[in-house]
# Entry
Amino acid sequence: MKPQTKSTIYWSFLDYKDWKMYMAATSKGLCYVGSQNRPFEELAAWAEKRFPGCPLVESQEELLKYENELIEYLDGKRKGFTFPFDCHGTDFQQAVWNALCEIPYGETKSYSEIAHIINKPAAVRAVGTAIGANPVLISIPCHRVVGKNGSLTGYRGGLEMKTRLLKLEKQC
# Structure
């Protein structure tokens, strides 16, 4: 789904301890958190697909409130986020992303559990696809979704990042 007006996409590079990732926001809220240690091109390609023609403008100031909450989370001092999101997706994707936000900190759910939560029990594969399209890693906690048997499965940020996030939440 395309935004109705041309938005400026502000971006910044979070470089905190051994966490390094690009982030982006519009005036409406956080719209992107990238994969760990990925190049700027990942953000640029995503922005061109989801916000075609919108300018990308570097601004640490615009991203500061989002960075501060993410740093608190990475330090184990925050279990939820208070900032708004500006995520564009289908109604189905939005339902899945909303369900992800309901998974309590330190807990996991399976893909089939998410499918049941959104009242689409036969749509397990589609749920997986929607989770893979989550543009805001960490803040919309897709890392909390695991296989039915508890195994770690795919993650846009990579399984190493997913493992680190789950371990962080278990320690706190």
Remarks:
- The chain has a mean pLDDT of 93.
